[in-house]
Amino acid sequence: MIEKKDNFFHLYNKKISYIFEILENGHLGQVYFGKRVSKLWEYDICYLKKYKNKAAGTVKYSKDMGNFTLADQLQEYPVYGTSDFGMSAIDVRCESEIYYLDFQYQDYKVKRYKKRNLDFPTSYGNNAETLSIELLDVERNLKLWQNFTIFDDTAAIVKSIKLENVGEKKVNVNKCLSGVLELRNMPNHELVTLDGAWLRERHINIRPIKHGLTTVSSLKGASGHQHNPFIMIKEKDTTLETGEIYAANLIYSGNFISGVEMDEWDKARIFVGINPEYFEWGLSPKETFSTPEAVFFYSENGINSLMDETSLFVNEHVIDKKWQDVTKRPIVFNSWETMYFDFDEKKLLDAAKEVKKLGMECFVIDDGWFENRNDDRNSLGNWKYDINKFPNGLKSFSKKIHDMNLKLGIWFEPEMVSPNVELLKKHPEWLLGHPYSRKAIGRGQYVLDFSNPMVIEEIYNQIKKIIIMTNLDYIKWDMNRNITEAYSAYLHDNDRSQGEVFHRYICGVYTLYKKIISDFPDILIEGCAGGGGRYDLGILFYSPQIWPSDNSDATERLDILTGTVLGYPLSSFSSHITASPNHQTNRRTMLSTRHNIGIFGALGYELDLNKLSTQEKKEIKDVISFYKKNQELMMYGRFIKLTTNDDVYNWAVVNKDKSEAVVMIFNRKIKPNSTPKSYLKLHFLDEGKKYIINDTDIVSGEFLKKYGMENPIVFNGINQQYSVVTEDLQAICVKIREYK
Ligand code: GLA
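That is the input. Now the predicted structure with alpha-D-galactopyranose docked in place:
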């Protein structure tokens, strides 16, 4: 998948080509990213060379290189101070000297296969090839490896940087982004970001790309609720099925920056990496620093095919593939919105009996199970079960759950500590925070210094005891407050810069993940951070699924899901059916609506089962039985958006051979006497197949594609006996399968 000709490198698979070159000054310059080109032809190279260096740019790179200026080149890893005036990818300083870096090409290496290594999240796969280009700044004694990985199945290029100090003086790295993609002629493009807040995560935000810099970022020590590292650049008139799209993401969970800068010639510089603010990494002689990986995606045919690429990439090359076996992904029952802190063993066991009867598979005790934890202000960092709530012990409780043939899950918030716990009295220096007299506090808790390996060891040992005691199957790993005053006593004692705290902290989080997963490989860890405050590829490397939001309202989830799936697969989206009226919005929705939205992704329940009617219990049983039979389709089917209108959401999943599909239709409002009938064209079905809809109507694939499927009839005052949509905010699912 990697070809070198002349000064040009060509990375390709069946879908895409990525071409870059060694420029006259030894830097790397980008040439092309898009649809596959068959090969690097001699005459194409001549053509490219002929028109080089004919454009604008007043300042030239060097008096010895004629008209050559970096300002009008597409650069692989731009630096400031060498005739380019845009946003730089790297900034290194030595004492008070600012380095104007000049990395020159030295050599290259190609490596096959890419192993999953739990030390740090990266992409992986047997079908990977990685090209490493070695560059050297001779005067500043710095070596830089630029790595490019391509897989044979996805329209994605993965990039990362490794920097080595080969000199004799210590330097400070103030910025080292993971990857840049430059594109010419982008005057009519838009930037799409996934923005929001707690309870309103990853809503689609579209804005035109104007000259200058537009970024989204985080300084919270986590990717955050407000912005997501995933960004997308699309032509204005891109549709669900047409138009070119470029997208980028970062395999990382800490402070990030993602953005685009458009210069005076409508050239767009797209970049992602660790946020350079409050970042400073000391690099002593012989030390190296490696960035997280950036991923760049390309779609030739609009949003649906971009989602094909992002979900394929994440399912195949980021998340551990073993979780694709859906028998390992239980239907969860969670105690949080069911009983919050108000429970004891008896109440839990009563609920568990019902859980079992209804067909759920894993009983999760959320917060509130450990000593003194009767509200959210206490006891974090003291992971011992509460004897008052479990008078017979947690071990005995766990046995009872397992004897019912249910799995057991427990909530932890490993990175946090409450002010009142012994741990903090013994080790006040384990708290992350400046020794100032004032420290910010959030949800009554502080953050532990995860840059200190001893802290991780202590927390791991505490969690391990509970895992062994309960023979635990599932962990909900929460993280409810962000980092402020990022100061580590440990780094101070070890003479490291405080600018390393944020990155070392998140590396510490990954270390704890590694310890748990290596010792207990069968435990499923669901990621969570006050809902969806850490929904990123770093977490997905370790956790196959994430709690996407503390907002569990079905109609709110429509917006959250629609944004999330642009960059992340359905299989990662945890979806719980909760009470009506909903606890976050007070909104009432029918159980069927909650189900018809909730079955997309990893299904679970989080409501008081005692309050359900017999009819509702029957509905839950039926849905669970459908879901179990179709779990692979609902988690790993191809997800397709069918409309872009906010009032009417239509989407579908279809399996690989197009023999099974589920279409979801949602109407925000019933409009009396509006369109008497409407049709939905199911272009994703197979023209040659015959289908049966809802086990009733037989129709050809060709007809469903060209004419369309009849939409469910909406109540309009006089058609009462036929109407299927009878309320506002109602979601309907239509089940389609091949008819033989
Ligand atoms: C966070 C999580 C919730 C729940 C609570 C428990 O808010 O996002 O799902 O686990 O903590 O305190």
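The radius of gyration is 27 Å.
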